[in-house]
């Protein structure tokens, strides 16, 4: 089609991976190196969250198509895992450059389908790009261990090796970063990969896949299927798939962890969050208020590391009026409009849910200091907009505290002491991220040692670790035992072979059988 040709000419990268279908572009499957139109009769609409216009359709892949995708991964596995590690490194070195060259196009696709602002969308790509850059140091990361002379003439060494076909299931909120936590690390270790992007935002993954092809990844090393529950269950059950990386909500993540583990797979499951920011009275006020506002309302609160809960300790509660004023200054608008700070929520259903959680807070006795409901964005009246919202006087039993809101809503609690704040946080089931704002080193140290949360910022509001570390959410925010990216990511996608050798000089030949356990 014309669209496909313009894609190949790279003139309209927004249409990447799609073909014209009933006047709306359709998302293709990637099977065995070819972007193909699904034969399914079941399609889902993709909406622009700022307008709710249908901007594309995504197929629910058929059983036959999903089987073909896994078969392609299986066939590609042996030659790919036998490829020299330096060749794999070269492909990913080219890939990181292609992502850099296409960052604007990738960001446009993210804003179109996900809604976040263009500047934030570039950050989404950039944080994923850093994982690809990390993957480029694979020769050092795959090194094994050696120990010579563990006994006479005997040496032991290990190889770190790939595990086979791996699969990734991604959420809607980071269309670039999260898929890039998955297939680049899995593939650079020598595995082949089956991706199932979020059905709400598949476009960015399709363009990322095309760029990986352009970088030289052989056919079949990355396959892409689309769909919802049936595709997820297919991945959990298929015997050729050895490992699943999942990021998303708790109901889905717990289901996938259980179903995938039951069929013998490794599963790492990053899930929901309720991240607390603790504000000490000795904190730098200006810095803290700005950090809180940015981390609570950026990306319309649709970040697993958003600071969605603030605990004001002691007299820092006097800062609330200024927090409200600063929050009011954010501009709510479509993500592609200049100056936009807060874009729309992903869907009308998400908007209804967020607004009803705000109302539940009011009904349960919280004080609505700033109400973002009924935010009218000129020219985008059909968009899923909710403006920055602040509920104060929130108590732990309230629904707006017990549930992850995943919207631009900051719930504020108060505590008399740091100990009280730590107890509150440790009693919350989630353990993804937290931050403390203070100028006192001893306070910060006590906090980082006593709070039971996997990722902690000290005057850093969204402490998502860079890829040389790992994403270490804990407790209710994670299932599995090996985290995403960093050394743990390499461990997740590899297995160890341990070799013990004995090379004796001829005159030291064993002369009788040893029947006792060698020590
Ligand atoms: P989601 O769970 O609805 O969807 C994630 C993926 O799972 C999608 O590919 C979807 O098709 C599939 N899925 C959805 N429901 C399913 C079900 N019941 N059974 C099987 N598969 C299912 O999540 P989302 O709404 O796309 O993303 C938002 C959630 O992701 C939030 O809870 C957020 O905190 C979490 N998240 C966590 C992290 C992290 O690293 N901890 C990062 C980003 C997002």
TrEMBL record:
One Pfam family, short name: Aldedh
MF-aspect GO terms: methylmalonate-semialdehyde dehydrogenase (acylating, NAD) activity
GO terms (BP aspect): L-valine catabolic process; thymine catabolic process
Keyword annotations: NAD, Oxidoreductase
PROSITE patterns, per the entry: ALDEHYDE_DEHYDR_CYS (PS00070)
Catalytic EC class: oxidoreductase
InterPro entries: Ald_DH/histidinol_DH (IPR016161), Ald_DH_C (IPR016163), Ald_DH_CS_CYS (IPR016160), Ald_DH_N (IPR016162), Aldehyde_DH_dom (IPR015590), MeMal-semiAld_DH (IPR010061)
Record-level GO cellular component terms: mitochondrion
Catalytic activity: 3-oxopropanoate + NAD(+) + CoA + H2O = hydrogencarbonate + acetyl-CoA + NADH + H(+); 2-methyl-3-oxopropanoate + NAD(+) + CoA + H2O = propanoyl-CoA + hydrogencarbonate + NADH + H(+); (S)-2-methyl-3-oxopropanoate + NAD(+) + CoA + H2O = propanoyl-CoA + hydrogencarbonate + NADH + H(+); (R)-2-methyl-3-oxopropanoate + NAD(+) + CoA + H2O = propanoyl-CoA + hydrogencarbonate + NADH + H(+)
Start and end residues of each Aldehyde dehydrogenase domain: 36-499
EC number(s) stated in the UniProt entry for this protein: 1.2.1.27
Function in brief: Malonate and methylmalonate semialdehyde dehydrogenase involved in the catabolism of valine, thymine, and compounds catabolized by way of beta-alanine, including uracil and cytidine.
Family in the record: Belongs to the aldehyde dehydrogenase family.
UniProt name for this protein: Methylmalonate-semialdehyde/malonate-semialdehyde dehydrogenase [acylating], mitochondrial
Species assigned in the record: Champsocephalus gunnari
